[in-house]
Amino acid sequence: xxxxxxxxxxxxxxxxxxxxxxxxxxxxxxxxxxxxxxxxxxxxxxxxxxxxxxxxxxxxxxxxxxxxxxxxxxxxxxxxxxxxxxxxxxxxxxxxxxxxxxxxxxxxxxxxxxxxxxxxxxxxxxxxxxxxxxxxxxxxxxxxxxxxxxxxxxxxxxxxxxxxxxxxxxxxxxxxxxxxxxxxxxxxxxxxxxxxxxxxxxxxxxxxxxxxxxxxxxxxxxxxxxxxxxxxxxxxxxxxxxxxxxxxxxxxxxxxxxxxxxxxxxxxxxxxxxxxxxxxxxxxxxxxxxxxxxxxxxxxxxxxxxxxxxxxxxxxxxxxxxxxxxxxxxxxxxxxxxxxxxxxxxxxxxxxxxxxxxxxxxxxxxxxxxxxxxxxxxxxxxxxxxxxxxxxxxxxxxxxxxxxxxxxxxxxxxxxxxxxxxxxxxxxxxxxxxxxxxxxxxxxxx
Length: 446
Ligand code: GBH
Description:
By secondary structure, the chain is an alpha/beta fold. It is built from 15 helices and 11 strands.
């Protein structure tokens, strides 16, 4: 993994980090007063998660965090991105739960003591179940509960965080959670999804003000997932289908954040699903960001569904990962360059997630994840190209530090650069982790 000499990766201020999320690694789902989240409920519902897996134990990071910090220290990454479990740090009546907060305080202190920058996401999908019982993100009140949580936790942890993110991938919370039901809470209604999105974004905007007031030296932003679409169809309707895919996946979130409006084309796709928006909401949502976190994984090929929408038609003969996702690095370059063009107010960007799953096995104490190494090399080259095209990208986080609970796919899909044997909780750095470590050592010696 040695990039070309002129790559932005050699610049010491270009952050190379690793990322995780609370529910996917922590386990200890009822320790120290942690309340149930929608993912505890969802994963306990038969048929929702592959093999009936849950996050009850996961990587047991809640108890093994020191070992995991030592792994990060061994890799010598510049930064670590983690998320805070809302149900761990706040009681049902909105008070701080000091036992849960202490966990994050000691973790952040340990990371800081080892010279790592801390990127902290407030919400990576684990809504307290008691809020879902009152309608979850479809209830406007949840946006205000989220803002209270952001206020409380940013007071408690002020000074320990380099960059806050309000939400991870609101598209997934809204669409997978309330639209197609693949994720918790498993609702399936477009109208619920658009309303949930509006409340997620409103919660984000309200939270931003608290983050800035309580921790003025930290950066504050949001993390979004983006997708790129191609079409193999030859009709104008097919090209429009590819555009609408990107409207649904990208502009639905980015336009409110960066242009203070929903894209009109969204209502071409969903004519009867406009959310209720109150006066002043869009200005709150569109408050300036210090940075935008972008998570990119793959490209989708679509054609027109004959009506106003699109259907996916998988490309044949392309490289795919264990998830079945196409490996398409140029999609990342393409999207970054097009965002710079489409959004005059695009803030500095961090790639907050990029990575792939493979069916990795430990053989003689080693894991040879050669597809992942090639994946990283090619996506980092795509980021470098975007930087050279003028996009202000300041860092890149590998998804993920550890193999972990891959949501609806449970433990079957391995995204880590460190292998986890779930029977013993033994961590084994894969070859990709060794190469990251070597590259960073080489960069430091220059
Ligand atoms: C990220 O989301 C998550 O932030 C992270 O927690 C997760 O582990 C990682 O990716 C790997 O999956 O319409 O049901 O076919 C990735 C977001 C996932 C968005 C797949 C688009 C298509 C889902 N992407 N998704 S579906």
